[in-house]
Design a protein that fits this description.
- By secondary structure, this protein is an alpha+beta fold.
- Helices cover 24% and strands 24% of the residues.
- It has three helices and eleven strands; from the N terminus they run αββαβββαββββββ.
- It has helices at residues 5-17, 32-53, 92-96; strands at 21-23, 29-31, 56-60, 67-70, 77-79, 107-108, 117-121, 127-131, 134-135, 152-154, 157-161.
- The strands form four sheets. Strands 4-3-6 form a three-stranded mixed sheet, with no helix packed on it. A three-stranded antiparallel sheet has the order 5-11-10, with no helix packed on it. The protein has a three-stranded antiparallel sheet with strand order 7-8-9, with no helix packed on it.
- It is globular and about 30 Å long.
């Protein structure tokens, strides 16, 4: 996310308006900052738990039959130009076909084989989710719950929605 001086100033004004002291249950004064520290601790624990559990992959019906989707109902694709455990989609390719990135170990919902899930390292150190060794991607213009770009040739390869076997749908 790009930060601008205006955005930072707006954020600072918002935070300043939340400042001040409040009384705790015992009647003593506490600062918003201390209260925020407790909330930040809870948020940090939630983030750690999410990282440990990782992103969810599920099988969902589509016009192509059951294909893989992420936990937010975005269709997942494979790219034929990729080799096993290695991506070749960077730059403009990764803008149109964003990689499915993960913090933590990916999880399989019913119908998805946990043993086929993995991750690979991308340039820059991010981790990309794989299924049957194939890196997974989204299509930038897919609405949630829909597969728009199966069997599309672009960026030197073909893009396919991926089924539970780890293959293009037949």
């Amino acid at each position: 996310m790009k930060r601008t001086p205006i955005g930072l100033a707006t954020c600072a004004v918002f935070l300043a308006s939340c400042g001040g002291d409040t009384k705790d249950a015992s009647g003593g004064l506490t600062t918003q900052r201390a209260a925020a520290g407790v909330a930040d601790s809870s948020a940090s624990e939630a983030t750690t738990a999410a990282r440990l559990s990782g992103p969810l992959l599920k099988l969902r019906a589509s016009q192509l039959g059951p294909v893989l989707f992420d936990g937010r109902n975005r269709a997942l694709y494979l790219f034929t130009r990729d080799s096993r455990d290695r991506t070749r989609c960077y730059g403009d390719c990764a803008v149109a076909w964003p990689p499915f990135l993960a913090k933590g170990r990916p999880r399989a919902a019913r119908g998805v084989k946990q043993s086929l899930l993995g991750t690979i390292s991308r340039r820059g150190g991010t981790r990309q989710v794989t299924y049957k060794g194939k890196p997974l991607y989204f299509y930038v213009h897919d609405p949630r719950g829909q597969v728009l770009c199966n069997n599309v040739q672009e960026f030197g390869g073909t893009w396919y929605a991926q089924n539970a076997a780890g293959d293009p749908p037949t």
